[in-house]
Amino acid sequence: MPSDLFVKAPFIYSGPDFISFPLGMISDLINYRGKSIQRFCPLTISRLLSNGALVDQVFCFAFLYLKDNGNLTLFLTQPYWLDKSDLQESSDFFFAKAEELARSAGSESLEVEIHSQIVPPVSFPSSLSDFSYDLDSMKPQEVDSRSLEERGFQEEKALFCYDQTIDEVQDKIEEKHGSKGAFTTGDMTQNEFSTIDAQTCQFPLREHCLSLKDPIMTQRMVNFFGDTGSVAHKSGTMFSRRSIEGFLHWSPNLFEAIRENPSPFPFLFYDYLVSHRFKCGKVFRWRMRQENPELLSSLLSHSLHSMKQCGLERCQISSVDNRQTFVKSMLESYGFHIVHVTRLLRKEL
Amino acid sequence: MKKVDCLFLHPTTHVKMSHPNTADSLTYVIMPMGTLALADILDKEGYETKIVHTGIERMCNRLFTIESLFKDYEVSVVAIDLHWYVHSYDAIRIADIVKQCSNAFVVLGGFTATFFAQEILLQFNNIDAIVSGDAEVPLLGLVKQLAKGQLEEVPNLTYRDGTALKQNDRRYLADESDLDRLDFSNFHLLSNFSKYRTFVSQLGDLDPFAHKAKLKTQGWLCLGRGCSMNCSYCGGGENSFRILTGRNKPVYRSTQKVVETLARFEEAKISCAYMDFDPFPSKRDYYQELFALIREERIDISAEFLLWSISDKGFLSDFKRTFNPLYSTIALSPESGSESVRKLNKGFYYSNEELFRWLDDVKSEIIPLQLYFSSGLSGETKDSFEDTIKVGKRAVERYPVVSASCNPIELEPACPRFIYPKKYGIVPSFTRFTDYYDAFRKLAEGLPVTSRLGYRTDWLSEPEIIELSQRFREVVRLAEYEKWRKVSRGEVLRLKKT
Asked: How far apart are CA A307 and CA A313, in angstroms?
């Protein structure tokens, strides 16, 4: 990984083995067809000059994951071009290498995440993976989706990230729903999280997630913060019969912390994170059993209250699929607007 | 065949695996930094020069043999580094092969070769000469004079003259201006350099974590030579330098030259510079000047800095604002958690209170930390080692420690414990070069070794010393696991409520 990457495009790595990152190596093994494979395959393409010097062209944090159908996929975070002097050649080489890598690992497909329509602030996490660029600090690099289509990629999904001030949303919710109480919402502890996650993973309304099968997607490090989950039950039912109706899980915007104290692995310095005064929180994981405005407002109200108690001023909600019309219209009615679109493109190999 | 005036061969320690179908483990793979500079001097003088790292070649091609080199090259001089004692067997083994398949003149250099020069030349006929101490001027002199057969003017040289050994009286000791003339970054002279910068880490083994995804590339930065202290276990302390090279005080490279090397590192896509030279911990103005120049020249590189003693907060904040945080770490070797053991063994003493105050500073500066401890120190007992475990455990529990290791100390040639074993309560089993040679030969051949560390202490047997390090690793790893388990389950991180 080029050392100037973090300067040009600050990022946070929040995945497995982050303690080894400063030592220059990370590991997570994935079992596929009886073989144990290294999940991470960071890719740097460099140009060799005639004087022997190397010029880095493009970097991509690539990794393998298991899709829900059990197939192996190589996921490419948005390629970052460090030198654009010969974009065509370096792009050709990069995608050829990525394809070669995917095939050699036995992967059936290649996926790439592209960031577009960035209207700062875009809070942490900004990626579907554990490698999030601080999109506010880096100079956004436009990726021509037509050139990706020419390379055989097809857009699978466009995912929206919404933003609004907490006060504004609270006012709108109050105005629309008052204090009706069809649902009871409370804190979700970290101990409860894995049970609730398993119980709600098939809910029809949920954030987009690369895989429900691969642990790397379900056990993301952003679980690190306590008191950042809200869970909703139906009101009036007996405690023992209370089924879970939905939950929200949010993270403070860690980019704010790394702008003050640059580090790609802020969890290593967690004491510092605890005392940092964050301004923005992002709901990165959310589930609902049904399209019920009151359920969403109840969950949101609880999370917003928690955020506000911690001094946060803005709220974002990410990984909203463009086809989720109910969630989109509800969020828009609460004054949320889109600050970031993630396009997910896929190529079968 | 291509003519090569000087071929540098870097040995790698082979350890035979007990399983018959498993390849030898290749360990201790870092090349002495000076090798590149030595090769560069010859190259600049017009001599055809090449460096081959036998471990890297073997890693790139399991069928690589030293013999195969001599099918391609007609070599006049083969220079083998025997700096670290761990290469005692492999350096001699390589020399044997060279003599079997060529008429090349074989010369050894480095601390171990220097310390045991007479014994090596008496015992091993395949070695023609040994350059003692600083080798830049002597090696160039050797290559120049060899054809004329006039080696008596070559400084620092001990060589075979018929059946006799000759030791030249002329001495060479590099001063600061000499160091400034050296180029430590002529990487194209090293075969497979791109593999070296990626796969060789300070951890010692070649690709020790083959299962891990590699992120960084590393280069070793020469800042100077020498030391001002005498740690009991170190073969590179003040007195050792005096014995080995004649150097009485440390010499620094100029900050300008160091920055030039770093710029070359940057060009060669080395993302992290390893810095291990800190001979005057109480006076670190050299680094203040160096770091300011690095910032001024906008060198973008990470650094792994091995402090020889704790620092003030100013050094840490200076370090932080100078280097790219991607792979930057600070390393410290408290060695022992027992203050009395630390005082007895380390030249640079600090109390545990001072150590933890320094750890607070590192934490507040947001710098990842590596800590090194050891077992088998003089005066150390099983009871006093408990203090080492306590300090290690507390450090990983409370501070941003990315690596806390503990290893049994081995007996380094020329260290105070080697020279004055009684004073330090050491009963050595390695006293001659052949003791080191035999131990590493047995490892390479898969035979049981009688001693791994080369000594026992008045307080602990060798197996006990090894076991203590093992116990440290178990306890401290468990503490580390518990810490991150709690953190990752959200039991620790709670945002403050307003």
From this structure: 8
